[in-house]
Amino acid sequence: MPQNRIDRILQAAAEDSRDAPFLLFQDGTSASYGEVFDRASRLASVISQAGISPGDRVLSLMENSREAIEFFVGCSITGAVGVAVNFHSTAPEIAALMDDCKPSGIVTGAAYLERLADVPAIADLKLRLLADAEAPDWLNYHQAVAAADPLPVNQDFDEFGPAMMVYSSGTTGQPKGILLSHHGIVQNGRAVTEALRYRPGDRSMTLLPLFSSFGFAFDFIHVAVMRNSTVILKKFDEAMAAESIERFGVTFLAGVPTMFARLFSEEVVAGHDISSLRLIDVGGGPVSVRLKQMLAQQFGINVVESYGLTEISPVASVQRASDDLASDSCGQPLSGFEVRAVGPDGKDMPVNEPGELYFRSDTFMLGYWNQPELTAKTIVDGWLHTGDVGVVDETGAIRIFDRTKDMIVANGFNVFPKEIENVIHEIDDVRECAVVGIPDDIRGEVINAFVVPKPGMTPDPDAIIAYCHEKLSRYKVPRVIHLIDEMPLTASGKIRRHVLRDTLPNTAKD
Questions:
Q1: In the chain, what is the straight-line distance between the N-terminal and C-terminal CA atoms, in Å?
Q2: Residue 307 DSSP SS3
Q3: Which residues contact 335 (CB under 8 A, 6 or more apart)?
Q4: What is the pLDDT, as a whole number, of residue 441?
Q5: What is the pLDDT of residue 285?
Q6: Quick one: pLDDT at residue 262?
Q7: What is the pLDDT of residue 509?
Q8: What whole-number distance in Å separates Cα of residue 86 and Cα of residue 119?
Q9: How far is CA 13 from CA 2, 9, 253, in A?
Q10: Which DSSP helix (H) or strand (E) runs through 131?
């Protein structure tokens, strides 16, 4: 009987921890493991009775909710592939995804009906479920689930079969479908819970969207493996998050740097008791050392950094709580992982010398949907080429510099944005920072820094440049500082650097 399946994890939890609280909602209600699995089993019947077969794709377009969790479990029971769609997607983007993956059904909310009305392919789906309202040509989710009989778990389904598809966040342009297996997702989850030493009774909260592999793993799979509970926050809101930490006694958070920079600002956490928090995992992008130190020293919270990719399902390494929390390491690879830093010539780099990171594990994606050539270029001889530049130190721990595509070549020197961003983050007036390179006929690229000030502050661009001159080699110093009101982010909180680049002319001048 395959144990490493999403539906089997929830079935086992419903059997041994039936009445234990799983999902906690903002209105004060909760849902137990038994209740969630029962409703997901009934949803599976609705999916199956619509004529949707194992391997067929079903879309989910909604904010974090109980329905989002039930959706993935219900799809798993039927063998369907749940396709998580970014709820910020426009009608043309949704139409493009549908044309790519050819889904048979969709589960969504009333807030998206107007958008979906402009997607002609919606009318041809076998199943259209509306979670929070009634509308012509749509089945009401809750009525359909209540009227259905539970569908038994198929014990013969292969755990190495497809479980879900996550479309890349589009930080570099056109999203691509990343197909993940049950085995990869669950095995990765078990390895992370062991590395992070989750405790029985830990309580998480969905700062991240559940359509992202990061949020799905940390706030669903890890929680379910441990039979713990998670607080459902529909979408990230720093004020509501601070209030919820206090109200629900949240002990663990996972998120990206921009979220924690906002959540733990003085004006947000003031007056809130957040002493229940014991562990924070920061990942999803370059993390400033100062942010990690602030969270640990000012709030007394263990702060660790993790590294991963959706293609890995999704975590490759995590800093253990016993590690040096002030370092910029993101820890040693998880159990069952191998890592190499590889140079441009394809040879392994010496210890502490930068190269592209390659990983080998059995939790990798099944492939990019309908893109066999790209899949073959990404996973070569069992090694996944990440496109990220980093080093492996003498202990085997990983330190990330940046994405290869984000590396800046200025005056013939390779410059990594993270190093500059770490320096700028040391300035008190700065809340967020992102560094990009702009093409230049003479220098190759000119370094530009985008800075979001702390509320009520107005950093001096000349002072920022002067500070960088004190801390960095001349060729690494930004030539231009742009003060902006907010950073362009994906729904999962990653900085959209290509949007920043697109705001500037192709050639920067003195």
A1: 66
A2: strand
A3: 191, 194, 195
A4: 67
A5: 65
A6: 86
A7: 39
A8: 15
A9: 15, 6, 22
A10: none
Class of domain 407-502: alpha beta
Provide the residue ranges of all domains of the chain, joining segments of one domain with +.
6-182, 184-191+228-362+383-404, 407-502
CA distance 173 to 110: 28
Residue 287's alpha-carbon distances to 341, 425, 499, in angstroms, are: 20, 10, 20
pLDDT tens digits along 433-452: 999 988 876 667 889 999 99
Whole-angstrom Cα distance, residue 433 to residue 23? 34
CA distances from 59 to 53, 75, 307, 316, 401 (A): 14, 10, 27, 27, 35
Tokens (6 digits) for 464: 């920022």
Residues 40, 22: Cα–Cα separation, whole Å? 13
Angstrom distance (rounded) from CA 234 to CA 62: 9
**Helix, strand, coil % in the chain, rounded to nearest 5:** 35, 25, 40
User: Pairing mode, if any, of strands 21-24 and 229-231?
Assistant: parallel
Q: Tens digit of pLDDT for each residue in 289-304?
A: 777 788 888 888 988 9
Q: What does each C-alpha distance from 154 to 30, 41, 202, 217, 242 come to in angstroms?
A: 28, 11, 31, 23, 41
In 416-477, beta strands by DSSP E:
430-440, 444-453
Runs of H (alpha helix) within 252-353: 257-263, 266-269, 289-299
DSSP 365: -
**Has domain 6-182 been given CATH number 3.40.50.980?**
yes
pLDDT of residue 294: 82
Hunting for tokens 């209105």 — which residue is that? Answer: 27
3-state SS assignment for residue 280: strand
Q: Domain 184-191+228-362+383-404: which CATH class?
A: alpha beta
Hunting for tokens 């502050």 — which residue is that? 457
User: φ and ψ at 395, to 5 degrees?
Assistant: -95, -5
Which letter, b or e, does each residue of 373-404 get, where b requires 16 or more Cβ atoms within 10 Å of its Cβ?
A: eebeebbeeebbbbbbbbbbeeeebbbbbbbe
184-191+228-362+383-404 matches 407-502 in fold: no
* Residue 255: per-residue pLDDT: 92
- Helix or strand or coil: residue 344? coil
d(CA 118, CA 300): 49
Structure tokens belonging to residue 206: 């969905």
Which contiguous run of DSSP H or E holds residue 469?
A: helix 461-471
Question: How far is C-alpha 247 from the geometric centre of its chain's CA atoms?
Answer: 25
Let me know: does 287 contact 257? Beta carbons within 8 Å. Answer: yes
Mean pLDDT by 10 residues, the chain (510 residues): 85 97 97 98 98 98 97 98 90 91 97 94 97 94 98 93 86 74 97 95 96 94 97 95 98 90 89 94 76 83 90 94 67 95 94 94 96 95 92 91 74 76 90 88 82 92 92 87 90 81 62
